[in-house]
Amino acid sequence: MIIDTHAHIDGADYDEDREEVIERARESGVQYMVNIGCDVESSYRSMELAEQYDFIYATAGIHPHDVKSITEDTYVHLRQLLLHPKVIALGEIGLDFFKNYSPHDVQRTHFRNQIQLAHDMGKPIIVHSRDANEDIIAILSEFYPKDSTARPGIFHCFSGDQELADKALEMGFYISFSGSVTFKKAEALREVAKTIPADRLLTETDCPYLTPTPHRGKRNEPAYVNFTAEKLAEIRGLKIDDVQRTMALNFFELFGIGENAKTGTVSYKIRNSLYLNLTQRCTANCTFCTRLTKPVVQGYNLELKREPTTEEVWQSIDNVKNYDEIVFCGFGEPTLRLDVVKEVAQKIKDAGGRVRLNTNGHGNVINKRNILPELSGLIDEISVSLNTDTSEAYDEICQPLPMFRNGIYDKIKEFITEAKKYIPEVQATIVTHQKDVDEAQCETIVNKEFGVKYRARRYNIVG
Ligand code: SF4
Ligand SMILES: [Zn+2]
Ligand SMILES: [Zn+2]
Q1: How confident is the model at residue 458 (pLDDT cuts 50, 70, 90)?
Q2: Given Cys at both, which of 76, 93, 270, 379 links 375, Cβ 3.0 to 4.6 Å?
Q3: Which of 276, 385, 404 to mutate for ligand 1's pocket (most ligand atoms within 8 Å of CB)?
Q4: Ligand 1 neighbours (beta carbon < 6 A)
């Protein structure tokens, strides 16, 4: 099931076959569709569509192209529309300095006015931004503080650069990609799309415009949102199920529509791997980790009311042969439950599966012995989070337990060196974009000092 967060099927392009278009959307798995208002008339038409169809929701707002025609009455209508239970956001609003259908100062004024209205009515906004990066950021930052945990709305049909994306994310926005991300020449946009955290990613058609490949050139429609989701999955190294699940949860978190992710997840599938969640406890408290605040990965909620037993973990695996690998991971340190890791790994190996262990590398200190010989034959691959190039930076960023400080970093290095003796494949990883970390130096340490595989990943991109 997929969500089209931005469609314009109220327009004349669909007068001949609107019902068929809606039917095709349903048949192709569109779970929800948001029809977007651009002026007063289209906002009313959107509301009517939302009244007619359960799975359609609406927004109301005045597009920057049309703000030149705003009157006092317009705001009365918008207020009225926003009271409707299926009118879920104010938009699309913003700045368009590409087409320039309305004067820039008028655009700025009504962008501010409409944001203020959204604030007053407690609604998220749908932002349209074209060739106006600086002004968009300047105006939005008047209303939405940096590093806020509030979610102000969606940057729709994102076409900006990395800087705009980062600024929008800082203010709490979701970033929605349209069919333009599938276009052959959109390499730069795809690079940006790779960096959007999973919990901020959405997709849309913006139909009738921006028809994704392979239908480019034809009229767009909500059913085609799948092509964009496919492309997003592909460039992020995921399966379409993964981005769909993640985006469904994002949609729920923003609008309260759909289902929240259930807690108590013991095993969860991402790509063709099955991940096992043994504990939420950890001997570190990395500054970037949302283990305690929001233990969600790729649409799965890993909050555990209690830790699962060996039997429960084993029972949660349908068939090890269905997966490329079974990974001990989760939002916590698996070696805190070493016995469970060993028992479950043994069962997986006996059943012919492949096992990976993702760890913070504290296992020998936690268990007060060298645990690596015990893992020999049970674990095929181990992935250790090194994260920094110095011990000081490690203590600063990974915040190990007080008794582990001033030295755990060297123990992790020892752990990696020792792992090479017992585990066929060893890799050391870092989470990129951390303050005071020399990423090139990390890579040198991993390649030269350990001679193992190095992997740098951005937090919350792939589970
Ligand atoms: S080691 Fe892993 S689970 Fe523990 S705090 Fe750091 S990122 Fe989170
Ligand atoms: Zn737009
Ligand atoms: Zn639009």
Answers
A1: confident
A2: 379
A3: 385
A4: 282, 284-286, 289, 291, 331-333, 360, 385, 398
- The residue whose CA is least distant from atom 8 of ligand 1 is 289
pTM: 0.92
CB neighbour list of residue 350: distance below 8 Å, 6 or more residues apart: none
Ligand at minimal distance from the CA of 155 is 2
Question: Could you write out the DSSP letters of every residue in 411-453?
Answer: HHHHHHHHHHHH-SEEEEEEESS-TT--HHHHHHIIIIII--E
- What domains are defined for the chain? 2-255 (3.20.20.140), 267-457 (3.20.20.70)
- What digits encode the pLDDT tens for the residues 136-166? 999 999 999 887 778 899 999 999 999 999 9
Residues 6+ apart with CB under 8 A from 3: 30, 31, 32, 33, 34, 202, 203, 225, 247, 248, 251
Phi, then psi, of 335 in degrees rounded to 5: -75, -5
| Beta strand segments in 139-265, E | 153-155, 174-177, 201-203
Candidate from 277, 279, 287, 291 with most ligand 1 atoms within 8 A of CB, to mutate: 291
Q: Which two tokens stand for residue 291?
A: 């283990």
